[in-house]
Specification:
By secondary structure, the chain is of the alpha/beta class. The protein is 25% helix and 33% strand. The chain contains three helices and six strands; from the N terminus they run E-E-H-E-H-E-H-E-E. The protein is elongated, with a radius of gyration of 16 Å.
Length: 139
């Protein structure tokens, strides 16, 4: 099994609904995401995937859709006020936890036909969440 990992940095804000800790308030993070791609065999170039291909697709999507945006659950009561202020938002079905954001990025990479096996989102220098489906299809 061959693996490569691309690291992408981005900034985002969020808050968690129905939560009693500090994250119940609007706040921001300097996030780091690690995207792990795996294959049993290398392609004709001798690669799992060209790092530039990952950058052009996944990093561009993160920069466009998530970077410097508030990631909020779709029923967050702050949405109307933030929208009125012109603040950029990305709405999720569930709480925008590190686990859900990692899953969101994994699903995007998978939709773009990348042989993604795991996504790790570092919310702080000391805390990260990993999303890896229990049953994976490898290219």
């Amino acid at each position: 099994m061959y693996q490569v990992t691309r690291v992408i940095h981005f900034c985002y804000g969020h808050r968690l609904m129905n939560y009693q800790g500090k994250c119940r308030h609007l706040h921001g993070h300097n996030g780091k995401v690690e995207i792990e791609l795996s294959r049993d065999a290398l392609d004709q170039r001798g690669m799992v995937m060209d790092f530039d291909e990952i950058k052009r697709s996944i990093q561009s999507w993160i920069d466009q859709e998530l970077d410097h945006k508030m990631l909020l659950r779709k029923d967050d009561p702050a949405i109307p006020a933030l929208t009125q202020l012109g603040e950029p938002l990305y709405l999720l079905q569930d709480n925008p936890t590190a686990e859900r954001i990692a899953q969101l990025i994994f699903e995007y990479a998978q939709s773009q036909q990348f042989p993604v096996t795991a996504v790790r989102l570092w919310e702080t220098a000391h805390s990260f969440a990993t999303y890896r489906p229990s049953v994976m299809q490898r290219s």
